Amino acid sequence: MSELVLTSKDGEIGIITVNNPPVNALSPGVPEGIAAGVEEFGKDPSVKAIVLIGGGRTFIAGADIKEFGKMTSGERKRGPGFLEILDRIEMSSKPVVAAIHGTAFGGGLETAMACHYRVAVPAAQVGQPEVKLGIIPGAAGTQRLPRLAGVAIGVKMCADGDPIGAAEALKDGIIDQVVQGDLLQGAIAFAKGKIGTAPRRTRDLNGKLGSEQANAPIFAAARDAARKKARNVLAPQAAIDAVEAATKLPYEEGVKREQELFLNCLFDNQSKALIHVFFGEREVAKIPDVPKDIQMIPVNKVGVIGAGTMGGGIAMVFANAGIPVLLKETEQAALDRGIATIQKNYANSVKRGRFTQEFMDQRMKLIHPQLTYDGFADLDMIVEAVFEGMELKKKVFGDLDKIAKPGAILASNTSTLNVDEIASATTRPHMVIGTHFFSPANVMRLLELVRGKASSKEVIATCMALSKKLGKVGVLVGNCRGFVGNRMFGPYRREAQFLVEEGATVEAVDKALYDYGMAMGPLATGDLAGLDVGWRIRKEFKDAEDKSVRQPLLEDRLCEMGRFGQKTGAGWYKYDENRRPLHDPEVDKVIEQVRKEAGIQPRHIGAEEIVDRVIYALVNEGARILEQGFALRSVDIDIIYLNGYGYPAYRGGPMWYADTVGLDKVYARVSEFHKQHGALWEPAPLLARLAKEGKKFSDFTSSAFSATAKGSNA
Ligand code: 3HC
Ligand code: NAI
Question: How far is the CA of 316 from the centre of ligand 2 (A)?
Answer without folding.
Answer: 15
